[in-house]
Write a structure and sequence with these properties.
GO molecular function: hydrolase activity
Number of strands: 7
Keywords: Hydrolase
Structural class: alpha+beta
Largest sheet: 7 strands, mixed
InterPro entries: Nudix_hydrolase (IPR020476), NUDIX_hydrolase-like_dom_sf (IPR015797), NUDIX_hydrolase_CS (IPR020084), NUDIX_hydrolase_dom (IPR000086)
Family: Belongs to the Nudix hydrolase family.
Distance between the termini: 43 Å
Pfam families: NUDIX
């Protein structure tokens, strides 16, 4: 029998749709790996949490944006997706009706809205996560 050391994380894709464009909330990482690169809000699941609770907690801790719910998107677990250790992330998707001004905190150095057509370079496999979220939740915007 093998001993596994797999860590569980959550990431949250948060969209805000306006008449002119669809926005996506990103954080700028304060720590390595990928220090100062843009990423989805997220982090490690605590032993006592279910997945949605962890996703909503990480979102609020890093951006100040509070959602009441989000929907599970997909599990991302390719070896090497996180250079620190073997990590599986359960991605979630949420929507806000009005553009809330985010406040970076915790391990986020900055938090901003970006137009989904003008995203910066992203850490980890977050571009892949965002593309899947767009294809499933915003089919008119799929690339």
């Amino acid at each position: 029998m093998s001993s596994q050391s797999i860590f569980l994380t959550v990431d949250t894709v948060v969209f805000c749709k306006s008449e002119k464009q669809t926005l996506l909330l990103l954080i700028q990482r304060k720590n390595e790996p990928y220090k100062e690169q843009w990423a989805l809000p997220g982090g490690f699941v605590e032993d006592y949490e279910d997945l949605e609770t962890a996703a909503l907690r990480e979102l609020k801790e890093e951006t100040g944006v509070a959602l009441t719910s989000c929907e599970q998107l997909y599990a991302f677990g390719k070896p090497g997706r996180d250079p620190r250790r073997r990590t599986v992330s359960i991605a979630h998707v949420g929507f806000v009706k009005n553009k809330i001004t985010p406040r970076a905190a915790d391990d986020a150095g900055d938090a901003r809205w970006f137009g989904i057509d003008k995203l910066p370079d992203l850490a980890f496999d977050h571009k892949e996560i965002i593309n899947l979220a767009i294809s499933r939740f915003l089919p008119d915007h799929s690339q």
